[in-house]
Amino acid sequence: MDIILGIRVQDATIIATSKAATRGISILKDTDDKTRELNAHNLIAYTGEAGDTVQFAEYVQANIQLYSMRENDIELSPLATASFVRNQLATSIRSRKPYQVNCLIAGYDTKKDQPTLNWIDYLGTQVELPYGAHGYAGFYTTSLLDKHYRKDMVVDDGLKLLKLCLKELETRMPIDFKGVYVKVVDKDGIRSVELD
Amino acid sequence: MSRRYDSRTTIFSPEGRLYQVEYAQEAISMAGTAIGILSSEGVVLACEKKVTSKLLDNDGSAEKLYIINDNMICAVAGMTADASILVNNARINAQSYLKTYNEQIPCEILIKRVCDVKQGYTQHGGLRPFGVSFLYAGYDDRYQFQLFTSNPSGNYSGWKATSIGANNSAAQTLLKKDYKDDLTLKEACELAIKVLSKTMDASNINSEKLEFATLSLSKVEEGKVIHKIWNDTDVNALIQDSGVLNDKSTEDD
Amino acid sequence: MSDPFSINGGSAVAMVGKDCIAIASDLRLGNQSLGVSNNFEKIFGFGDKCFLGLTGLATDVLTLKETFRFKTNLYKLREERSIEPETLANLVSSTLYERRFGPYFVSPIVAGLGHKDNKPFICGFDSIGCIDFAKDFIVSGTASDQLYGMCESLYEPDLEPEQLFETISQALLNAVDRDALSGWGAVVYIVTKDKVVKRVLKTRQD
Known about the structure:
The complex is a heterotrimer of chains A (about 200), B (about 250) and C (about 210).
Chain A: E1 4-8, E2 12-18, E3 21-23, E4 26-29, E5 35-39, E6 42-48, H1 52-70, H2 78-93, E7 101-109, E8 114-120, E9 126-128, E10 131-134, H3 136-148, H4 155-172, E11 180-186, E12 189-193
Antiparallel strand pairs in A: 1-2, 1-10, 2-11, 3-4, 5-6, 6-7, 7-8, 8-9, 11-12
Helix pairs in contact in A: 3-4
Chain B: H1 3-6, H2 19-28, E1 34-39, E2 42-48, E3 65-69, E4 72-78, H3 80-101, H4 107-123, E5 132-140, E6 144-150, E7 156-158, E8 161-164, H5 168-178, H6 185-199, E9 210-217, E10 225-229, H7 232-242, H8 244-252
Antiparallel strand pairs in B: 1-2, 1-8, 2-9, 3-4, 4-5, 5-6, 6-7, 9-10
Chain C: E1 11-16, E2 21-26, E3 29-31, E4 34-37, E5 43-45, E6 50-56, H1 58-79, H2 85-97, E7 106-113, E8 120-125, E9 131-133, E10 137-141, H3 144-154, H4 161-176, E11 186-191, E12 196-201
Pfam families (chain C): Proteasome
Subcellular location (chain C): Cytoplasm; Nucleus
Subunit structure (chain C): Component of the proteasome complex.
């Protein structure tokens, strides 16, 4: 029931993740951040099996940071980062105990000056999308996004659209997901945004 | 006495040297010369083909120049049989990087990986080091065109112009004298011919004694690298253009 | 429901014409009934006149695309020429059979022209690499039943490139319209002796 949502606009990619950490019928925490910074311009947001998620996200985070340490602080591009993550999941799905982690990778390609949003599921299915979500959030929000998304939107338009999606989720989702953390990835890096 | 320290690759001599590695480098310094020159428009690699018999039935493919991937080529000095093992290793490395990251491998990462293999044979015992030096010409979006050399010890370094193999010090002196930072690719090619014509033993140079390759950017497709291993006609035309034949004939007179 | 071949959906088809071939696929990628992407191509080129279509589980489509890029790139460097369609077919077959007891969930198709003689070649495979040679057409994917029907009725031998394009496009478009898991746009490659034409088709977006 976790929510992760991503919208790519003209100069940035926006990510929203629900704050609730649930187990069974209980909400254990209402300040759970389901994202990790992979490097200065790549953010991973994840949902899935408790335990697997953080373990996996921090594993790829470590590997991507190791790459930069070996290569004189050169960052992997969003495409390379997403490809690496996909590769890990595609290998994992055929192992004895696969990671059950779905993720979105928000990135900003500083060479091409392009924001990207990569949708990757636990099977290793990867696609670059203008907007995307995992889990039930997808059913409620994709039709809204289909209708209102425009190619020439900027961050503020994106945040407005995001609010529209969140309103829908708050009405339709059967349990309280305790609001969302919103992060924006653009040419200056990753930053948190407060929705008013 | 010396036999005590040079029969095994991994044992230091009392002077702190690894004789087998030095011998491998010695073997290379007798192999045909290869030179590489970097220009803003691309990189040129040129090598000298040793002993060409009329009876040798070669299939037309280059002996000492190899394509590693879409963005890199290399020239070899030393034992060609050893080289082909390392070239194959480099090609596989380049493809597996492409498979995991969906991007071409940056030049230096690939060179580092091949050099790690070479270094391994200077430390783990039982086998001899690889008897090859490489000249790598490459392009990536981090540092654009690049030229590197590597040797049997597993060291590698980047250059604007350099040479490996026989007479490499003479070639380097000539390169140091004539290299300019604003060289065009054509000028770099001609410089390569000029230097080779002076360092090679042969009196007249032609396509039978030379192998030539260039790396440049496509004018049509942005970011696409063109690697070309030259055919005999093109090499002869270049030799003609460079004017080394004229210099020779006037000297002879 | 949890059949790996129909989680993501997607279809592909190849046809032989007169001295030419055509290969086409839809563009949908879904997660069960939910459409995720309308830009997921399932046709990949290896060499100038040689194409591979991959339908089935999307993660395996991507993995195999990358694997065959790896293998054909090395092939090209070693042989100093591009791979022939027949050779690619055997490479696909052996690569799939390596995973005989834990297969990739894909149904590949190969189509191309011989590099020297320009002889048309098409074939299909099951998920463990058994080759299905055909003279006329090959279908694969979640709309394969519908594609069989369309191809049986529209196909005729020795079509010229333009007619072949029309035939394969109509076959694919009308087949995927009867399949909930395929559609969302299509892409067609027409391969003749001196050029490859790629056309992206607009289709119904539902």
